[in-house]
Amino acid sequence: MNQKLHYVKVTPENISLALQIQGIVWPKNPVDHDYRLKANGADEANTSWLVYRHEGSSDPSELVGLTGLYTYDPDEVGYDNGESIWMDWFSVLPRYRGHGFGEQILRRTICYASQLDRFKYFRLDTSDFDGRISTKLYDKVMHLREDYTAETYPEGYRGLIYSYSLDGSPIKRWNNRLLNLGLYGSLEADIV
């Protein structure tokens, strides 16, 4: 089902809403300083959006979720010569799950990344545990799934990297290169 969604850039004026969503979906994940800097920045490849559902009017009325993008700098371990753009803080609030919003938001985020015309690959990292529904969504939409074992996850969980070709070229596998997720990767596995 395709719903009419409205995307509002996260800025210093509305970052508190983004942080509320993060607190609901990832209560144990701290927000890093870089995320707050993105709200002040003008880099279209490092940005986030609040996602609203329209209810018959031109104004957004219901906050559904959050999505975003980020890149690694040349001095960071996840840098791959600027070929990849990564999904950041993708979430759908619990009461809106199972209604197609996640797929619609994911596909729109990929489309936006493609329109930047700067990157070959759209990638995301996640942890899989106990039939997590987002993993099923990523399996459906993304082009390539790889195990990520360069960092340790709690017992019963496993790291995954998903990739999508933005320009139609064959995907260069991530091949378990270190991302330095550290605290974030392990805490994500403890989502309530």
Give your account of this protein's structure:
This protein has helices at residues 15-25, 33-40, 101-115, 133-141, 183-188, and strands at residues 5-9, 47-54, 60-70, 84-87, 91-92, 121-128, 144-148, 158-165. It is globular, with a radius of gyration of 16 Å. The protein has one domain (5-188): Aminopeptidase (3-Layer(aba) Sandwich), CATH 3.40.630.30. Strands 1, 2, 3, 4, 5, 6, 7 and 8 form an eight-stranded mixed β-sheet that branches. With 192 residues, it is of the alpha+beta class.
Give descriptors for this structure:
single chain, 192 residues, alpha+beta, Aminopeptidase, eight-stranded mixed beta sheet, 5 helices, 26% helix
Element layout with pairings:
Layout: E1 5-9, H1 15-25, H2 33-40, E2 47-54, E3 60-70, E4 84-87, E5 91-92, H3 101-115, E6 121-128, H4 133-141, E7 144-148, E8 158-165, H5 183-188
Parallel strand pairs: 4-6
Antiparallel strand pairs: 1-2, 2-3, 3-4, 3-5, 6-8, 7-8
